[in-house]
Amino acid sequence: MKRENAIHGFEKKIKRRDFIKGSAAVLLGTPALWAQTASGSNRIKTNIDHVLKIPKPSRALPGLFPGRVVQMHNAECSSGQNVRSEIVREMFRKTVMTLTDSNMKNSFKRFFSRKDVVGIKVNPVGAGLISTRLEVVDALVDWLVECGLQRNQIVIWDRFDFMLKEAGFTEERYPGIAIEGLQTMDVQALQSQDHSRWLTPDGHHVSEDQFDRNVYYWADVEGPEDPAYLNQHVFRGKYSYFGKLITQRLTRIINVAVFKNTGNGISMATKNLGYGSICNTNRLHQPLFFDVCTEVLAFPAIRDKLVLNITDGIIAQYEGGPGPNANFTYNHNTLYAATDPFALDSICHAQMVEKRRSMGIRVNEHPRFTEYLRYAERLNLGIADPGKIDHIVI
Amino acid sequence: MPFFLVLLAVAAGLFNPPASVTCPESGFYPGWDQSGNVQRFVPETLFNHINGGAELFNEFGFRELTLQRYARKDTEIALEVYEMDRPESALGVYLMKSGRETKQTGIPARHSGGLYQLMIVHSRYYIQIHNFSGDSAAVQVMKELAVRLIHSIPVDPGVDLLERLPRENRVPGSQWIFRGPYGLQPVFTLGDGDILSQKGEYYGVTGDYEKEGELYTRIVVFYPNESTAYSAFQYLSDNLDPFLTVLESGPDFMVFQDYESLYGRVHTKNSTLDIVVRLKEKTDPPIGR
Asked: A22 and chain B: CB distance < 8 Å anywhere?
């Protein structure tokens, strides 16, 4: 086992901060102003300042181990699309035990009580190719059950119900465990023009009641007025409501992202929750994009419940993401674990840059693609500075 | 093709409705039938199919996606045909999606792919064929599907846009086409939004160059006339990314330093913006004035 403070590419970035530290220091006063500059001077307003006033409990993000990231590689873990579940299970156990510096039973006790309702947020996009591996979730579920959680206290969830099914997260595979999408979406409706499966006669999305009108990410931009958008996003105004599953039922969250890119950035731990916990998101892509990954995680519904992040890098994708692109997937055979999703994404971003570069992919290392991580650090949600990250490689 | 003809063709394309392709019928390969109905997506609905990636297609002039699945027993492949407004746009999308090209035998169009996916560019169509299961028996089926489709699509004039990048010192295979901020994003950040004033109409090309061990990137955007190019230069000057520091400037050029302490230079001449970035030395920029 070795500890690495930083990955090569990210060290460079830190040196670059000398160039910008003068302007950044001026902006430390108000987080909203800092965010505004993080994404450009015309950055639209959000309700982040209101959210930051909500008192933060001691075990909220960045969780029990701020800045600690555990990484384990095993070349035997997968070959092509074939994944060896017994190796995944062992890798999972070792990463968690290394993270907590204790055995699996005590690790459970540090994160959960037996009364908790635990949500496992998976990423089912790119079913079978680049979605969260079932073998990783199997290992997670077995751990929770072995430590005394009832199966009916576990929910495997994502934003879209149909994607969960496509990716193999079914009740048959996980008997007794709830498999829940925050919303439904009828992908056939636009072709058939039959909107009855998602739209009520009075013009509302059938999933409206699955979102909590009292807990919302507000941003001063609206979604377009068309059925396609409403079908996918449930609401179209300036409010992105959190799923009731998250705000009202889950008491703890485990986040199981996939190691993949989105353009020059990554679509891993923070994006899996940032865009997976709320509705009405497409409007946010252009004006806010990565800032959403920070600001949505600042809400107590995530900030105070998220206890563990696993990034599934068994089969990873270095280009063409966040959607699946088989030409750019590879057997990375690596699992990562952290309580701090921002430290985890910092490490993974640097590794993604190195991978992309090694494969001859264009890499634009403009600071804007990692600014959301430094923004999170300034909000005390996580550690982004590689010099402070305790990166443990098994 | 002269550039004014390209512009005319772009304008004409805006008023032509999409010409839906006809997917090969069931039985195009023994045992393989269409699975489900054909699906079509237009610019306003594309995000339903590729959420998070539709913006790039739309920026390039996407017109219609035709999606048809084929199956034999438990094995399924999917054909996606993206009709773009021009061959330049189809090639632009292809170059962004394909990465290092891996050739297959017997496909009569530019392509890249392997077991899981084939990517093809032909005329103004960008085509993807997915083999989700990775079943090696489906590879020949994918090729046959590609060949049948390619033969059903009329051939448009070839694309010479990339040849407008100077050849000398150019790194082979590094050329790229873009038509707005999403396409430019992987190359270099010059500012927010449509920073090069391409307005979804004017193409840009980029490529990497190597001279005496120095690797740098050249970006050239083609406008319809000098005044439009000059306006684009002015807009860029006024809205330059805050991480870039202007060191020198004049009525038609500027020199800047970036966040990695590398240098860049922008120059407008004739009806183009000529930009060089990631230079190690500020002096002697490798563009003529």
From this structure: no
pLDDT of residue A34: 30
- In angstroms, the separation between the Cα of residue B4 and the nearest Cα of chain A is 31
Contact B49, B81 (CB under 8 A): no
In a domain, B11, yes or no: no
Residues of chain A with pLDDT under 50: 3-39
Asked whether the beta carbons of residue B102 and residue A327 sit closer than 8 angstroms, the reply is yes
End position of a domain, from candidates B119, B152, B185: B152
For the question of an ipTM over 0.85, the answer is no
CA-based nearest residue to A159, from B245, B139, B51: B51
Same domain assignment for residues B85 and B32: yes
Range of the domain at B118: 19-152
Which of B42, B46, B47 to substitute to test the interface with A, most A CBs within 10 Å?
Answer: B47
Tell whether B262 is within 8 A of chain A (Cβ). Answer: no
Domain assignment of residue B53, yes or no: yes
- C-alpha dihedral, A267 to A273 to A275 to A278, nearest 10°: 170
* Percent composition of chain B: helix, strand, coil (DSSP 3-state, to 5): 25, 35, 40
Residues A387/A109, Cβ–Cβ less than 8 Å: no
* Alpha helices, DSSP H, located in B16-119: 54-59, 87-98
Whether residue B259 and residue A19 make contact (CB cut-off 8 A), yes or no, is yes
Which of B40, B52, B186 lies nearest to residue A362, judging by beta carbons? B186
Summarize pLDDT for A64-96 with one digit per residue, the tens: 999 999 999 999 999 988 999 999 999 999 999
User: Which of B48, B98, B115 to mutate: most A Cβ within 10 Å?
Assistant: B48
* Helix or strand holding residue B51 (H, E): none
Subunit contact A364:B185, Cβ cutoff 8 A = yes
Tell me how close the Cα of A93 comes to any Cα of chain B, in angstroms. Answer: 29
Establish if B209 touches chain A: CB-CB under 8 angstroms.
no
- The answer on B108 and B165 residing in a single domain is no
Domain limits for position A185: 2-393
Looking at the structure of chain A, the number of domains it has is 1
Residues B64-119 have pLDDT tens digits of 999 999 999 889 999 999 999 999 999 999 998 887 888 988 999 999 988 888 99
B70 with B23, same domain? yes
Give A55: exposed, middle or buried? Use CB within 10 Å, 0-12, 13-18, 19+. Answer: exposed
Are the CB atoms for A219 and A288 separated by under 8 Å? Answer: yes
Mark whether B272 and B168 lie in a shared domain: yes
Interface probe for B, chosen from A81, A123, A264, A362 (most Cβ of B below 10 Å), is: A362
| A22-53: pLDDT as tens digits | 222 222 222 232 333 344 556 899 999 999 99
CB B105 within 8 A of CB B142: no
Low pLDDT (below 50) residues in chain B: 1-16, 285-286, 288-289
Whether B13 is in a domain gets the answer no
Interface A–B counts its CB contacts (< 8 A) at 104
